[in-house]
């Protein structure tokens, strides 16, 4: 069976797929719930895993006009019992590659306004889904923990600490930086499950220290066409 987060000091064996769908013709992110439903049902027909989709990447031209529209596909999938986790990133940050710092046209702000975060948490609470927090900066942990506390009955969020060498946010992948994240989380949500992940980085040096500290999952991602790939 698929595993649910628990307040365990030992690593929790979770099989997890985080999906970004793209239109093959345009290369643009495809956020139709029907597309994700086919993907999720197809994967689960072959293996028993947690599968959940991204949301429109607010700050890029994929983003929708308001919180309800941005999470519309999540709501439809949740109604059909196809989700256990959601994406609900508790903060905003600049996305700029170090090798593009000199290009005035490069980069964008990855925006998650409070209204969007609250909508994601509202859906999570209403459908009993675990909010998946991508933690790009330490302030994301502080805000995410505070908002979860403000909404009693919300399932425990999963904190995914993001590392990068390519992008100018957060920390590079090193054990002292992981420890900084964990010290902050311990003071705010000490029983919350957590992961390590990265964009434009080799996170293999973090695997051993993360496992020894009780990591739930490790994952490396990359950026493609302005979105996560």
Low-confidence stretches: 1-14, 59-64, 220-229
Estimated structural class: alpha/beta
- Cα-atom Rg, whole angstroms? 17 Å
Mean of residue pLDDT values: 82
CATH class: Alpha Beta
| C-alpha geometry | globular
Beta-strand segment tally: 11
Q: Residue share in helices?
A: 25-40%
Q: Would you identify the CATH H-level superfamily?
A: Aldolase class I
The CATH topology is given as TIM Barrel
Name a few traits of the molecule.
single chain; 229 residues; alpha/beta; TIM Barrel; five-stranded parallel sheet; globular; disordered N terminus
Characterization of this structure:
The protein has a single domain (16-228), classed as Alpha-Beta Barrel (TIM Barrel), CATH 3.20.20. Helices cover 32% and strands 19% of the residues. It contains 7 helices and 11 strands. Strand 8, helix 7 (204-212) and strand 9 form a beta-alpha-beta unit. The longest helix is centred in the middle third of the chain and has 14 residues, at 114-127. The model is unreliable at 1-14, 59-64 and 220-229 (pLDDT under 50).
């Amino acid at each position: 069976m698929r595993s649910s987060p628990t307040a365990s000091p030992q690593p929790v064996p979770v099989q997890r797929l985080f999906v970004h769908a793209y239109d093959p013709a345009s290369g643009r992110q495809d956020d139709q719930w029907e597309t994700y439903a086919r993907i999720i049902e197809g994967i689960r027909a072959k293996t028993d895993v947690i599968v959940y989709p991204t949301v429109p990447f607010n700050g890029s031209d994929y983003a929708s006009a308001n919180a309800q529209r941005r999470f519309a596909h999540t709501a439809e999938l949740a109604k059909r019992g196809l989700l256990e986790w959601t994406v609900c990133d508790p903060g905003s940050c600049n996305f700029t590659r170090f090798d593009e710092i000199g290009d005035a046209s490069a980069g964008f702000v990855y925006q998650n306004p409070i209204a969007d975060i609250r909508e994601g948490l509202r859906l999570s609470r209403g459908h009993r889904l675990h909010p998946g927090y991508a933690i790009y900066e330490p302030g994301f942990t502080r805000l995410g923990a505070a908002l979860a506390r403000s909404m009693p009955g919300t399932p425990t969020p999963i904190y995914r600490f993001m590392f990068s060498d390519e992008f100018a946010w957060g920390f590079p992948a090193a054990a002292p930086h992981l420890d900084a994240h964990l010290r902050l989380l311990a003071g705010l949500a000490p029983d919350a499950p957590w992961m390590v992940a990265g964009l434009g980085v080799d996170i293999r040096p973090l695997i051993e220290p993360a496992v020894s500290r009780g990591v739930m999952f490790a994952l490396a991602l990359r950026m493609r066409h302005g979105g996560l790939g």
